[in-house]
């Protein structure tokens, strides 16, 4: 009985293989079958314009749509997205009419210089140096405390340039200014 069972299984497998090959060939020759046409999403995406191209699921590259997107020019709003604070506008000061009569003060618009960079609000409250190791400074800002050596960057903004027992020189990397912070007592 075993030989009959194995031949039956083989014949069923051959028939299923032929059916599978027939289905694959039919799908490939008919162009991949018919996909259901989208109705609501295409109408929403085209904002009421229903064209056969908008409703089609054709994967070809649409050069006209690509050209439209490439022609868009970003103009911006004048803000620098990489700075937290807004740009400072320097007001123009006009010299008074009384001073403008004087030869040393002609009637011109005078602008003040650029505003000073913001102060570095770190607090230097301690110093440590051991034999054979580099000096360390204990810095704080609010509740945050850092132990830094020369060359370290603190709070992703301040670089420790030099450490002495009475002061630490810190460079603000965002505003390009240096400041010496004295050791605070208490």
What gap, in angstroms, lies between the N and C termini?
100 Å
The amount of beta strand, in percent, is 15-25%
User: Spans with pLDDT under 50 lasting ≥5 residues?
Assistant: none
Q: What share of residues is helical?
A: 25-40%
Question: Which strands sit side by side, in order, in the main sheet?
Answer: 6-7-8-9
* CATH fold title of the domain at 123-182: SH3 type barrels
Quick structural summary:
The protein has 186 residues and is an alpha+beta fold. The protein is built from 5 helices and 9 strands.
Structure notes:
There is one protein chain. By secondary structure, the protein is α+β, with helices and mostly antiparallel strands. The chain has a domain of 60 residues: SH3 type barrels (Roll). Helices cover 27% and strands 24% of the residues. It contains five helices and nine strands, in the order ααααβαββββββββ. The strands form three sheets. The chain has a four-stranded antiparallel sheet with strand order 6-7-8-9, with no helix packed on it. A three-stranded antiparallel sheet has the order 3-4-5, with no helix packed on it. The relative contact order is 0.07. The mean pLDDT is 78.
